[in-house]
Predict the 3D structure of the following.
Amino acid sequence: MRAYAGLAGVWVRASWTYRTSFWLLLASSFAMNAIEFVSVLFVFANVPDLGGFGLREVAFLYGTTGVSMAVANLLVSGVEDLGRAIRTGTLDQMLVRPVPLLVQVCTERFALRRVGRLLQAVAVLMWACWWLTWTPLTVGLTVLTLVCGSVLFFCLFVLVSSLQFWTTDAAEAANAFTYGGNTLTQYPLTIYPGGLVKALTFVVPVAFVNWYPSLLVLGRTDASDLPGWAGYLSPVAAAGLALVTGIVWRAGVRHYRSTGS
Amino acid sequence: MATRSFRRYSTYRAATLAGLFTNTVFGIINSFVLLAVWRANPTAGGYDASDAVTYVWLGQSIIMVVMLWGGGTPSDLTERIRTGDVTIDLHRPAPLLAWYLSADVGRAVFHLLARGVVPTVVGALLFDLRYPAGPGTVVAFAVSVGLALLVSFGLRMLVASASFWLLDAQGVQQLGSLLAVFLSGLTLPLVLFPGWFGELARALPFAALLQVPADVWLGQLTGPALFRGLGFQAGWAAVLLAAAHVTLRRAERRVVVQGG
């Protein structure tokens, strides 16, 4: 943890040197995501509901997955560039340092500007929360959702990136799972065919990022085939994915045979 | 020049496959979202459900051809301006604009074959798509995609030549791709944009990149409307290429002034 903060701090100070550039990139990261939500608003100018869910409910789903994604995306800044670290050989330098490899890879080029994405998601989520009636249970559940969602996306980023230990050239395919998972869960899962929802529940468990717990918070457990208590299982899904991620990451590091002759 | 450029882009096979996979996954997600929209409102924007799904897959095929978020040979130019290599380009026996355009045509043809065909086939297997009404529509669609490439080249060239004046053009590029992705109708068909904002978006050059070719394919534009659509594209292509030409001429003089 202290190592993480220290290494991330180095990159934060580095980006702070070019202050104008930093603010511009932060603003554009905010705008890029804001535009995405504008298109959700445009959709609702044409239809009263989407898959049986109104604008405020969709905004809640959008906000919860958005915050989770943004937190994970910020924390794993460097993981997507694992392929480059392998190709250029900087991974060898990391392996000999007395800091866990994952911490070093994640903090490489730590991108504080991604806070822009987080701010946008928080804004949408706060707007969505404004309309809900809250009980201590739903507040607790929402906080738990955000924590588990962040863990799930964090693991997903590390998991698909560690595949680069085997193939360094196909990094773009990882986006289909990470950013794809984010896009999928921005909408009520009722709009997808049942087979896909099952896959998102049991294979790549992104449905637990926000869908099942949100049904409890929104009082819409009728919209799912699974019983309502599935909403409390996000920590189980997060722990399971973390376990798998740990195994694959370790296997990848063991498989790594350095670059060059 | 176009053939060489084709070969250059076809070297990276694994990256192409990975990109295809990602395009296809996003195509599937977008299809389900739009299907839900058209379930709730079966005549939204004058499309029906299969028009909407076809639009998504046309978009997934065309994004790499017109390079919506910037890139292609104009971003080589940005890099060459930064390093100073652009002075070599200025000595070539062909005008700068034509040189870069021919290279970009090669890239576009490669991306059309490698990134366009597969998503269309996958989309056709998974969803009920709409196909062109006849050979006339196919020809019109081909012309329309060609014009879309010219418009996008003009836009990207203007963005790239900004780096003759600004040393760090990252901000302009980000803004450019932000506008292009949203206003071309890649995130959401422009026919769903409401009110005056929709009218404005449909009049801007970004509409020539995806919305017009898609409408030609879907048979939304026929007879006089078809010629108005193609004319709209050709008009913006002429304006943007002329603007890029003028900008480059002024930039060339500026490079000379800066000297050695």
Remarks:
- Chain B touches chain A at residues 12, 14-15, 17-19, 21-22, 25-26, 29, 32-33, 35-37, 40-41, 44-45, 168, 170-171, 174-175, 178, 181-182, 187-188, 192-194 (CB under 8 Å).
- Chain B has one domain: 2-258.
- Chain B has a mean pLDDT of 84.
- DSSP finds eleven helices and no strands in chain B.
